[in-house]
Amino acid sequence: MAIVVKIPTQLRSVTGGESETTVDGATTVGEVLAAVAEIGGAWLVWQGVREHRGLAWVGAGTAALGAYGFVATLQEVFGTHTERPVF
After folding, report:
1. Cβ neighbours of residue 11 closer than 8 Å, sequence gap 6 or more
2. For the chain, how many structural domains are there in total?
């Protein structure tokens, strides 16, 4: 399943002047997995340190953040539309 995303005029310089882009279902699933791993990992580390739940929570959070890094590198969308810095 593909989703067509309209790009606002202000952001077209980032995408090379394209007015729309297509996002497939696999990309969306990957984005969701990356988000869950990143947020969940940070939350687990926070619980382990701030709430004194122990090193097991910190270790699980570190593993989840590592998984986030792995999942993020598999995504084609990360970094492909931002060939130059956006400030």
Report:
1. none
2. 1
